[in-house]
Amino acid sequence: MAAHPLASPRHNAADLGAVLANANTTLRNASLLTALLHNTQQLPPMFVDSAENHRPALNIESSAAECGDQIPVVDLAPLRSCDPAARASLVSSIAIACEKFGFFQVVNHGVDHSLIERCEREAHAMFELPLDVKERVHRPPGTSFGYGANTWVNQTVMHWAESFHMQLHPTSNIRDFSQKLFSEGDPNKFSSTVEEYMAEIEKLARELLELLTEGLGLERDRFNHYVENERMMSMRFNLYPPCPQPELAIGLRAHTDPHLLTILHQDEVAGLQVQIDDEWITVKPRPDCFVVNIGDLFQVLSNTRYKSVLHRAAVNGTSKRLSLACFLNPPLSATVEAPQELITEERPQKYRPFTWLEYLSNAYKFHPATGGERHERFFLR
């Protein structure tokens, strides 16, 4: 396949709307990603966030000191024991974390570290492919899966990042993507590693779903029907290259996840930040941990006991950063509604029933950092 010409790295703010409106995804991705591929010393205006309070601040040289320990680390070892008291303590710890922070981390999670490392190597191998090869799996406007820049509706500044989004369930597109990306080599190496990794994360996600359900005082299998037939399981690779002016850029703007659960592994480079009590906390990278966060759907199912909170990604000027984010979701036709047991006089029902398809169709049209429009559209009237 012939290489596509790269656009000039000189952009201005007016270019952004034109680029996002361009239906030619090949040219659009080239325009958006050119600056990432050039060794430029100045950040193109398209990537400069004019709102200083939106810019994640991160000093990579002192990131270890900056990283907070507020996000709880939960040991899942009691899952492998037969001690009811140990399980009850585990359930309580996770429930408290989700009520207070919406985030927690897990160790002794059962996912082999060598598998995590293999998946990270395959992710790096994919991002290191030439742009014209990655364009074979470009992500067209209005779709979810494939390679490209993270572009959101009504976006006013570009994220300093590349991403690649794949789906395992209900229908996998991983092998097809792998055949297109690695047709000159061994496509099975990429696809088999990614599928094995996602299968292990899904197993972990199901265990966490039951623990979280117990934490609400419900039978542990109460929400299991959401992750049975036609469930949705996807993963996004995120790569944040070194940025020439990181103090002006964002890796991923503040947002909540629309999903049921997100399970993320970040490499040793800091960048994930979570909003706690109006303060932005950098989550300390731990190779032995997965970071778990409540999505909008679980906030609804819990009748707001569990919190879906704002988080974002910061970039730095010296090191690239990789994260692997897996998302667990119900079938598109599933109706999302808090159980009657969780609706009380003290905590009345807040959301009307809706399908995951209805919520997903609206999820990225409204920026949750500007007043919660995404949620407000589904409030019970």
Automatic annotation (TrEMBL):
- Report keywords, A-Z: Iron, Metal-binding, Oxidoreductase
Q: Protein name, please?
A: Fe2OG dioxygenase domain-containing protein
Please report the organism this UniProt entry assigns to the protein: Ceratodon purpureus (Fire moss)
- Looking at the Swiss-Prot or TrEMBL record, what is one Pfam family this protein matches? 2OG-FeII_Oxy
Name the cofactor(s) required for activity, per the record: L-ascorbate
An example of a GO molecular function for this protein is:
metal ion binding
Q: Name one GO biological process term.
A: gibberellin metabolic process
Q: SUPFAM superfamilies, per this entry?
A: Clavaminate synthase-like (SSF51197)
- Please state which protein family the record places this protein in: Belongs to the iron/ascorbate-dependent oxidoreductase family.
